[in-house]
User: Fold this.
Amino acid sequence: MKQPDDDLEIQFADHLAIVSERWQAALGAAGFDAAVITAGEPVNNFLDDQAPPLKLNPHFLQWCPSETAEGSALLIRPGERPHLFFLRPDDYWHQPPDVPVWAAGFEVTSFSERTMLLEAVRQAALRAANRVALIGNSGGDAFHDLPEDGTNPAGLLNHLHFERAVKTEFELTAMTEATRKAVRGHLSARAAFDAGASEFEINLAYLGAAGQLPAELPYQNIVALNEHAGVLHYQHYDRRPPSVRHSFLIDAGGSHLGYASDITRTYAAGSGLFAELIEQMDTAQQALLDQIAAGTPYLDLHVAMHRRLGEILSDSGLLRCSGEEAFDAGLTEAFFPHGLGHLIGLQTHDVGGQQTSPEGGQTPPPENYAALRLTRTLDDRIPVTIEPGLYFIPQLLDAALKSDAGRHVNGALIETLMPCGGIRIEDNVYLRDGALVNLTRQAFADSA
Ligand code: GLY
Ligand code: MN
Ligand code: MN
Assistant:
């Protein structure tokens, strides 16, 4: 059987051709004739010689998907091969990196010192072009004589960010592999939960099975037992299991060559209303997936989910009104306060989700859905997450109870579910020739 990495190598040439075309058009439109992309470098903690884990510049990674390129830089000139200025320190304290395999078709020059590398990039850029843009948040001091408006220029970034939503075959394959890693972790985490493990132990089970170090993850795993599931970005790992287990929410992804997956599942420890609500949310999430087609505005999906949630809350008796009334009164917003999802790719919350056009402009969501990160229209090869939630968050439910529509809220029934925290079900999906590909459910099915 062909391994994913074989596919990736074959697809990388096409990927580079597409990325080159996009950069050529974007540079032209923004009035630049070359760009330097710095990969980024670690910054030590205050008064310390230790640095937090570094995430490389995603623009660098799209050209050269190597995590071992810190301190390096790329010079991009339309019509020329990319030039990688590669930092390989003479260092016996650390293992020096090798030139990334992905740079095989690039012009490559290696340097052992950062200052020499930056000076060489600067000189090459100035020799090659009149107007050079710098993309990155490091190395700026070395490029003082580039155009004043040339550091992370909005005109250039807008083009790149808008188009980045549409993924190449290479990127989709990398995301498929990032999903497979995460699903291995999810299966192991669930087994650990069933065995009575603590949040800390569940997280270790996840990391081991996914084969990912915490620093490699696209975002910090959310491993939440019981009421912790109602904290949207719960960040701790209790060392001890709770005395009674009600629920388990895990929001954990994986990364492959810089590309992310972002997956959430929720489980009930036993049968009863909470378990039924999970089933209903799962059904609603899949019904929503069936609605996705080229040309679907993402906001429509978000609103449709609020309507479905109104029905669930009404049918279950959590609200004593119809689903329609619940939606109209805004009551569903107290149970589902975040957005339905976001773009995903080189970043978990990929850039450009509210961008109106390649030229720029933003389409913000309606005020009552301020947390919605994605307001664009869906189309082929644009991976997004679909992650509806139903939470029991005291702060929000107290406010709902005190509101005009508070008489509809069944406080006594909600109280019984508070120890379960909440539900989120999150898949990563995209359209291929108009047909939905569900990366997440496909990976779970493949590992069954
Ligand atoms: N894991 C963060 C999110 O789902 O957006
Ligand atoms: Mn997400
Ligand atoms: Mn998530």
The longest strand covers residues 247-252. The radius of gyration is 24 Å. The chain has two domains: 6-164, 169-447. The chain has 13 helices and 17 strands.
